[in-house]
Amino acid sequence: MESSRGPSKGQIVRALIETADLEEVVSDNPFRSRAFRAAARTIDAWSGDFARAVESGELTSIQGIGKGIADFVTEMWTTGASARHEELRELVPPGVRRMLDVPGLGPKKVRTLWRELKIESIDALKEACSEGRVAKLKGFGKKTAENILAGIGYLESVGGRYLLPEAEAVASQICEYLRSGPPIEKLEVAGSLRRRRETVRDLDVLAVTSDPQALSDHFIHFTEVETVIAQGDTKTSVRLVNGMAVDLRIVKRSQFPFALVYFTGSKEHNVRLRSRAKDRGLKLNEYGLFPEGSARSKRCADEKAIYRALDLDWIPPELREDLGEIEAAEQGAVPRLLEAREIQGIVHAHTTWSDGKATLEDLARAVKAAGYSYLGISDHSQSAFYAGGLDPDRVRAQHEEIDRLSEELEGFRIFKGIESDIRADGSLDYSDDVLESFDFVIASLHSHFHLPEEEQTARVLRALESPYTTILGHATTRLLLRREGVELDLDRVLVRAAELGVAIEINANPYRLDIDWRYGPRARELGVYTSINPDAHSLPEIGYVRFGVDMARKAGWPPDRVINTYDAAGFEAFCKRRRGA
DNA sequence: GCCGTTTTCGGCCCGACTGTTTTCAGTCG
Fold first, then answer.
1. CA count, 13 A, side-chain hemisphere, A474
2. How open is the CA angle A274-A276-A280, to the nearest 5 degrees?
3. Which of A273, A344, A448, A490 has the fewest CB atoms below 10 angstroms from its CB?
4. Å between A150 CA and B22 C1'?
């Protein structure tokens, strides 16, 4: 079939990232690779009309996109490929690029292995290490070869990322253990966990203690520690038996706020802060903020003071991704972020009526006991036979139970909802008269994941058009660390959702966290509503809503656009307004 | 590769730690 459109923005972003990796291997100038990687990030996060920007030649007006990368993008857009990108792919075998993922191997060593020993795959690398060929290379040695083998083993065993709740659990275990040792004055987990990223690669723990040596020794004797990667005066790195890397940094009390900013990151955010410090004749590092030529840091009692010294408002950790937060802080426009206590109702929960583990009554009582004032039940619809989806008769029967239960539970509302499959053609899963009987409808994709983007987008847009659709559930169906989401033009979905007043769910299941927080700025700009939903299939899973709040914060989603922060009457009004009632 | 009202060339954040070296390059975050 002939395609009238060129590659999507996503494909171009992926090509830029791959080019960055490949340039890293072939080029002596690390800044070239960095420029490609930064451009990929910028374009990915850029919310304007991409097609128009490319076609009008306005790309270079975006900070970080110069002539070279604009040409790269334009060439891909018009011809479907970039000559430089293709050339690099010819030049560098895919196995060589994969070698960059081995911990301890960077571009220089990879290039040496490739050029000197003609190693072009992880397997060949393993063999060369075992046979002693790697140790003989100049600049390498026996220890280096051993480390490479260990790094490959790590890569093959776990792949290296963990879901947010897993990382959080390990972190609190470590903190509890550390507190059982030498006296600790301050202890904080920084890094991507503090930024509440949806997945975490390693943990950064920051401590102030009067006896650094003793704390470091105590740390490496934690039962879960498998290997000690490094142990120095201020930094101790270990790998746990589950594969997770943990860094413990020990600093002086006066250095703590600086270290907290530094180790919270992100790296890109830090680079911006440091360059900003430099512009002001200052040097920022993890130990302080130093006037040029001075060894004495300015005093900053906390993070706020550091940001203030750089003429910025304080930026919550969740926003520190260099996606516009620094500009916002410059203009006093850092958004107010949602707080977990603002959530008033639990929406999107499954019961034993379909594939949930808890009965409707147990669920309702648990939600009430947790302090919420309403529950929106949403079992599966009839097409979801694999999950015990409800046919119209069972829908009526469930509604009778809800009515009965509602009378018993004073001061608590139960809304009648359904998680309706979006059928292949984009229609909802019941006739209008059945749909009419619900207070709200969550429309979700549960099948036909492999449609081409254009068709999938049309399908979802059609589901949005139904006046019965209140919320679009887990928009992309991605499962973190397991499965990619469907091909979907989310920008078009957001635009239409904003026009129609359909909420886009933030599914708070830790595997989903879908819609991705990176769409937050665009959603904010369009005024899209969301609902932060646990998609609970058991009582404990009600607690997932917390991770959804984390994502709403990262997204900078305005609290007044989160419909389950409304009271029951407000939530009901939103649902009715959508239906035109 | 990108950027610039001190610059169109020469910068591009900064430090800890390791391993292979006799003073430093590479990697990492």
1. 25
2. 110
3. A448
4. 28
Which nucleotide is nearest to A135 if distance is taken from CA to C1'? Answer: B20
Amino acid of residue A518: R
Of A102, A106, A127, A107, give the one whose Cα is nearest residue A117: A127
pLDDT in tens, A364-385: 999 999 999 999 999 999 988 7
A484 burial type by CB count under 10 A (0-12 exposed, 13-18 middle, 19+ buried):
exposed
pTM to 2 decimal places: 0.83
Element (H, E) at A532: strand A530-533
Residues in chain A: 581
Q: What is the pLDDT of residues A129-150, one digit of tens each?
A: 999 999 999 889 899 998 899 8
- In the 8-state DSSP scheme, what is residue A423? P
- Measured CA to CA, the distance from residue A134 to residue A145 in angstroms comes to 6
Residue A2 has pLDDT above 70, yes or no: no
Out of A144-158, A212-226, A254-268, which region has the weakest mean confidence (pLDDT)? A144-158
Tens of pLDDT, residue by residue over A208-237, are 999 999 999 999 999 889 889 899 889 999
- Give which of A133, A154, A155 is closest to A144, Cα–Cα: A133
Local structure of A494: helix, strand or coil: helix
Among A396, A433, A387, smallest CA distance to A416 is for A396
Closest residue (CA) to C1' of nucleotide B21 is A139
Q: What is the mean pLDDT of residues A468-488?
A: 89
Return the number of other C-beta atoms located less than 10 Å from residue A387's C-beta: 18
Q: Provide the CA A138 to C1' B2 distance, Å, integer.
A: 34
pLDDT of A271 strictly over 80: yes
Who contacts A44 (Cβ-Cβ below 8 Å, separation ≥6)?
A9, A10, A13, A518
And the tokens for A365?
């009582």
Instruction: List chain B nucleotides near protein: any atom < 7 Å from a Cβ.
Output: 1-3, 11-21, 25-29
- What's the CA–C1' distance between A16 and B16, in Å? 31
Q: How far apart are CA A62 and CA A44, in angstroms?
A: 12
A188 sits in which H/E element: strand A184-189
